[in-house]
Amino acid sequence: MSDSQLTPVAFDIETSGFDADAVITVAGFAHGLGESLILNTGGHSEVDRNTLVRALDEESTGTAQLDIVADEGELLEEVASFVTNQLDGDTHYLTAFNGETWNGGFDLPFCRTRFLQHGLRWPFGDIAYADMIQLVDRFNTHDHSDLVGVYDVLVGEETCDPFDDSAEAVDAFETGEWLSLCQHNLADIQRTRKLAELAEQFVARSDFKMKNLQPPRR
Fold first, then answer.
1. Largest CB tally within 10 Å, which of 32, 116, 138, 200?
2. For 43-59, what is the mean pLDDT?
3. What is the pTM for the complete model shown?
4. Residue 135 φ/ψ, nearest 5 degrees
């Protein structure tokens, strides 16, 4: 299947901070059937999963799936399971907003380090990747270059994001505000996937600059 026929699966993570000991608190994927989220509670407290799922389903584009784990290692294993069982390199491409670019990015580099430190195999195999931040300058976004700003200019629809600043997700993890934390991740993956769908309609195929995430010795 050619790149032009691949459908986007948006990916985003939340973390407990940016220090060396920071961990992934939520990992989310937005796809054609809805969204799949993995919540790491850090063993802080028990969580009413059914209540969370009902609330997230109300904001989903389809059906919201939620896995709840007690630590980052389990979260990474669930990410690997989703990638292995749900991502198909013949039909999907992975996308994020500043997830990974030629000179940096956040989500994928952070994930690589965490998979390495947990002694886990890198799960993203033969799958194409395109970063939406690299397509921002193909639109007039009035000098906005962040996900929320670009989304508001180009789409403008309300989201379920309870936070004014993504830094609030760090506090939400510490205080156990699980619904707010999940809603923030849900909003970000929905924003990213919507931007990917718009880009597919308006931006030249060559500008997507897709790369394959499979390491040469995987």
1. 200
2. 93
3. 0.96
4. -105, 0
